[in-house]
Amino acid sequence: MTGFDGTSDEFLKDIEQEKLKLIDLVAQGEIALDGVMSPLTKELMQKLGAQGVDMTSWWAMTSMDWHCPSCGRHKGDIVRLNSKRELMCWLVEHHDHMGDLVKIEFEEQYKMAEVPNADKSAFDYIDRLAPVVAAYDKAIICVDCNEADRDAKRIANTHKHFSYSPLEIRRFVEAKPNVKHVIKHDVAQEIWESHKETFELRLKIIRRIADIALNTHDWFQKIPHTQLARAVTAQAENIAKKNKVSSDFSLLTKKLASTIDVNYSSWRYKANLPPLERPNEADIAYITNVTNLDSWSKVSEDWVCPGCHRKKLQTVRKNNKGKWFFETAKRTYLGKDIVEKGATKIICKDCAILTTKLGEEAARTGGLEIFNCFGDYVAIEEVNSIVKAQEHTMHNVDNYKTDSLIAVIVERMRVLNP
Q1: Is residue 125 domain-shared with residue 203, that is, in the same domain?
Q2: From which domain of life does this come (predicted)?
């Protein structure tokens, strides 16, 4: 077998087939993308009497039921006809121009300096810090919202590098189907006035960053692209994709099976001791408002883990870095009749770990090639029966009961994976 040279007829044929398959899936509406050939586009062309389509890539890369995060309109209400009677399907990237201002300020200071003391590495430093001063992440919005941002800045006489965020645009636009937005002048003005003080502070930060980049050496050392962590990851994933294999590279780091007797149950014989301290009010406030806001808000205050029956606050513990954290996980367990899958449960991090370890032990003990979805072979009631839960620390288990349960799960895995 010859090595892959990237130009073989077979490779090119595969590429063409992939292109045709993409177009066909979009045309049939069977993929969460859009295009000039999609059922939605055809429907909207007929509805508005369009004679063609003018579509951006962002529109094609979003689903047919996408809605704008600013005005809330769906695609059917966003489209309108342009002067050529083409269906305008325009979504654009909206970003905070303060990131651009960092580079502009650096250039101005460089040109004003009597003896410029910076090189390409200084600009690389600026390029990395530009997103830090942005008030919001880059977002995809409809073209009408993007134009409303431009017009509102003119109306409110804002700083030329100020931009309204997608959520702020929502506040000052009156959105109607298939027409441009009407702007609420007073609201746009009010938002700008509320930002003036912090905007000036951001300008000072930008000037200071540019000054540091211009006059300080050796604060940033660029690494060759191929050695970057993200580049190594991307290359490995690309290799897996080309060879149509799993990209779960952790499989490659597991020890190979051997004739040596392996104790697969060792994970549960090391006792987790009660915690030496408990989280205080400040710790909980930091978790709930900063580090684990998303996880905390996904479950109610009276939530109780269905696996270990601990209350929400009791599941907070320290991670390997000694920081308090709160995490939950979704797992689908077997139903009570142990025949079909039960409902998906939101469980604590420790019950998720226990479920995985339990499944791994059963699979390895039985010599079965099962590497994930271990909850498919375990009932939540079985987790209840073996767990020895403690507040603010990891679980222990009842090893006597677990020995019996492992044998049951091994047999179950064999039945469900003949």
Answers
A1: yes
A2: Bacteria
